[in-house]
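Subject: sequence -> structure tokens, single chain

Hey, anyone have a minute? Need the predicted structure for the following. Not urgent.
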Amino acid sequence: MALLSVRTLQEWVTQFEQDHLHPVNRRCHFFSIPLIIASILIGIAALAVPLLWWAVGALFALGSAIQLLGHWYEGRRRSFTHDPRFLIVGLRWCF
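Reply:
Had a minute. Here:
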């Protein structure tokens, strides 16, 4: 079952796309989602190498700022504020 609901994964992605129609917002997400994923992966490495925490914070902050810029252009709130499952859907949409 897709994301533990009656909706299919494609239905989740379609809903996500409805919140990301503006071309600037779409481009922002294609840059920002990989930055945020990189920050998470580097965060795991930072558990062993504390010097990496600055990179984690910088990548996460930059990725989040780019997403906020995109949503400002779109004129909509971030999808995950309505349902946190959209954090996972955004990954599928981007990749």
